Amino acid sequence: MSVSTNGNEENGQQSPPNGSKPNAEYWIVVHIKPDKSKQGTVEPIPVITDILSHLKGKSGPIHLRHFETRIESEEDDSLLSGGFSCILKIICSEEEEVHDVCENIGNLNSVTATVIVNSETVSRWIPRHISDLDRCANILTKFQPELQTDHPGFHDMEYRKRRQQIVEAALNYRYGNPLPDIEYNENEIGAWRKAYTSLKALHPTRACKEYIQGFSLLERHAGFTPDRLPRMQDVSNYLERTSGFRLRPAAGLVSPRDFLANFAFRVFPCTQYTRHHSRPMHTPEPDCIHEYLGHMPLLTNRKFADFSHQIGLASIGASDEVVTKLATLYWFTVEFGMCHEDDGIRALGAALLSSYGELENAFSDKAEKREFDPKTTALQTYDDVGYQPVLFVCQSIETMEKQLRDYTNSLFAPRRAVYDPYTQKLEMLLMPKLRRKLIDESYDNLKKLSETFPHEF
């Protein structure tokens, strides 16, 4: 069954009164489960009447523009087979009103799932396989040396030429290729050595214990030494063995959506050029000194890697508003996070641990320390050039990971991204199908447990 109402509005959207928010278009998909007590059938008319009765807004009208029903098939979802779906197109000025409508409809006895899909979500491309990350490499140019007159490399044509050669290697990289093997020159090694020795001296009093452990592992197994920069392939291979993450070359500062999409596949986009040798202790842009000294030690930690992976999964298919919030959470945790330890506050953020100046600022009275709470942290503004005036402190990496999981679960999402590490693919699952998948996995694990330890169950 399909019904559309057009009214007098251009393109089906009503012009808002002066001073009010413009109307937006939303699709609501309602899944109605079969009534097993009636041999798998369900009476559609009463259910449809109940659904339509909830199309009411608190602050303004909700206009129905399209309504149709579809029979659910076994291929769609075995949980819904025998039921049907209602698809509604509505016009509303407040997204919160749409969420309230979905929540009220979801409380009906016969409804098993409600989904909001706006036009932005429908048209957004989603990477499905790890090879699709070749298309997730949009670079922001705000820190490029040829564009910024205050960049230390702006007047150094040799540096700019060398950096462009390394950038070209990243731009030409495709999934499945060997990672570029860069032979670093004396200036680059000198900048690395200065940062390495100066920052390592601060680890005992400034870095969290997980970072110190990870740094030691990289020195033993991945070629970390002050005398030469490590090979990206060696670091990537070691991360795969410890946390399941791997590296791929990046040509510069990757856009937030593309950057977080890499995390969903447990991939870290890593630059291979170095900061200018005249400024070895600080850079506002990513470079391999920041990536290796800042990020890699904690990416050896499974809990911290899972935290990064969770941010990435939550970003897949999300609205621009949600991606901005997730990128802000990333900024105040993975880049500038701090944590409590028995002897005081320690740094865990990569931007802190790869910059002498950032560490000094973080442990001074100039930076205000607040307790980490994803809901408030996600709304905090930040400075992506100067030192941070506000930093957030978590109780532990484990606690931070749980807080993030609770926060991302609270975000409304029509579908949830699930990563399969065996096929290196993402699935976008509706909540009923995700619930069934998790139940089946839990059952399989319990079965294996009882078979392995038969006398304990």
From TrEMBL:
Keyword hit for Lyase: no
Ranges where the record places region Disordered: 1-23
GO cellular component: axon; cytoplasm; perikaryon
Positions bound to Fe cation: 290, 295, 335
Matching SUPFAM superfamilies: Aromatic aminoacid monoxygenases, catalytic and oligomerization domains (SSF56534)
Keyword field contains Plastid: no
GO molecular function: iron ion binding; tyrosine 3-monooxygenase activity
GO BP annotation list: aromatic amino acid metabolic process
Keywords: Iron, Metal-binding, Monooxygenase, Oxidoreductase
Domain Biopterin-dependent aromatic amino acid hydroxylase family profile: 111-457
Cofactor names: Fe(2+)
Superkingdom of origin organism: Eukaryota
Start-end of Polar residues biased regions: 1-21
Cited Gene3D superfamilies: Aromatic amino acid hydroxylase
Family to which the UniProt record says this protein belongs: Belongs to the biopterin-dependent aromatic amino acid hydroxylase family.
Stated name of the protein: Biopterin-dependent aromatic amino acid hydroxylase family profile domain-containing protein
